[in-house]
Known about the structure:
Distance between the termini: 26 Å
Bound molecules: zinc ion
Amino acid sequence: MYDLIIRNGTVVTGEYTAKLDVAVKDGKIAAIGRLEGEAGEEVNAEKLLVFPGGVDCHAHLNEPGYTWREDYEHGTKAAAAGGVTTIVDMPLQNTPSLVDTDAFDNKVRVLEGKSYVDYAFWGGLIDHNLDQIEPLARRGVAALKSFISPSSPDYPSTPIPVAYEAMKKAARLDLLLGFHCEDYAMISYWEKQAREAEKNSWRSYLDARPVIAEELAVQNILDMAKETGARIHICHVSHPSVAERIKKARQEGVRVTAETCPHYLIFTEEDVEKNGGLFKCSPPLRKKEDMEKLWDYLKDGTLESIVSDHSPAAPYEKSDNLTVWETWGGISGLQTGLQIMYEYGVRRRGMSLELLAKLMGEKAAENFQIPCKGKLEPGYDADIVLFDPNKEWEITPDSLYYLNPISAFCGLKGTGMAAATYVRGKLVYKDGVFYEKQGKLIRYDGQHRVAD
Ligand SMILES: [Zn+2]
């Protein structure tokens, strides 16, 4: 007997969309088809889409340490409500930053039992922790994150030669290295010039972070990856010309994967100039024609994952009282990725449901080698989202479960959103109500990644 059967829903996977039943047993998907047989519980999913749970491989949950911005209680509630069942949490805006094994162990302890959804950790690669790459890999990080752009004082940027040394080490371990690509020298130079000239408009901010800075940085990373054979991941690609370089490098055999975020696909630099703080992120938003072109790189598979880069802040850190340079750079989006991509991708641009399923989790699980996630297939974890394609929504502060319910996405309207979310076969969210926390740490055990 199955534990659960979800009947009559329209199952969506990266490969097909079909009206089928999904059976769950012991937290795993046991069967998909026209199913006979009994279950402890039956759910009628008539009129609903049945998606694999989302895998967001770029989110900043900020705990431990920066919990005035976000924490696991709120952040993972938001994830569950938005159909995300696995997050890969970033190592910065943590105290301590996750750049050594002590910090890893501490974070494991602090977060025990606090998450609604499953989670894995990014470790950090900074300017002076090359000796921690192997220990962190053995401890269980999914990947290492590095800034070759300006970063924050407690999370120093990685100089190019250190990134190169790191790639050589990571290649031997087959460990994924992720990079924030904006050229350090260029951005520092132009920002300093603007500040000295007291050019403090949002236009000045945008001008200090031009596309060439992202292109130059990504090309350096691609060239080094080509030589070292390292597996690399380019974070938050903001511009089609950057995507084009990634595409070419992949054709030449570079082991590169890449992601982008909903904000780069629907907002433009006009939004930054008009609305300021809430739209500040880096790389910054780009011109309308570039935003339009970025969609092509989803279709052709260059940009494989949609991630939130959920990077929350307290309201005062986004306030107009701060200069454009002091304002916190980051956009909160962990809860809203699926509904936005359904509205702007599927409904408005005719994106296929199969591509949406790939973008929201299947490829991320594959690229980050998270086993049993991102697909609806027998043997996979029963991470399931029941999605109501007819439900109308407006994103408002009231609708957001973040600790700080502010976001550039507030005010958007659309149709289609998650109605219920299951983690390993257990209901964690349904129609505005949350159930027991189910989140477990996913870690590398020295040979393969497993849930604890
Ligand atoms: Zn980020």
